[in-house]
Please model this.
Amino acid sequence: MTKKYSKFLPSAQNTHFEDFPFYWIMQVHAQYVNNVDHALKKYGLDNSRRRILVALQSKPNASVSDLSQMVVSKMSTTTKIIYRLKDEGLVDTYSCEDDARITRVILTKKGEEMTEKVNDLTGIVLEQSFEGLTPLQIEKMMESLKQIFKNLAH
Model:
């Protein structure tokens, strides 16, 4: 480990969690999920189901595997969420014509309407979370997070 990053890592010399960048990433994420879950209660949804709905909005007819990757969730967890959404009438599933082993998922009309509603609610949470930051600061933060992701992904 180089000294260049040592002040940002937990060690015998640095025992302050608050100095560790991933501590703050996890804190921000957990608070965001709490706020989103609280807002979604009015529709009887939670963040896990919202993530699938939003992913389907951006990639219609996605496979369960695609959705699992998009929402960073295990296949078994994603499958459970999809079938719960299906029971609620928000999504439907069908076998892929080219490969029957692949299950594809689509938003129903009710699912499309719900996705619009949850996007409005989560937009409010997002605006609240960025209060006091300029668009440039948000863009720079996004660039930094993308670079960290790229570094970790290989």
Observations:
- Helices lie at 21-40, 47-58, 64-70, 75-87, 109-129, 135-153.
- Strands lie at 62-63, 91-95, 103-107.
- The longest helix spans residues 109-129.
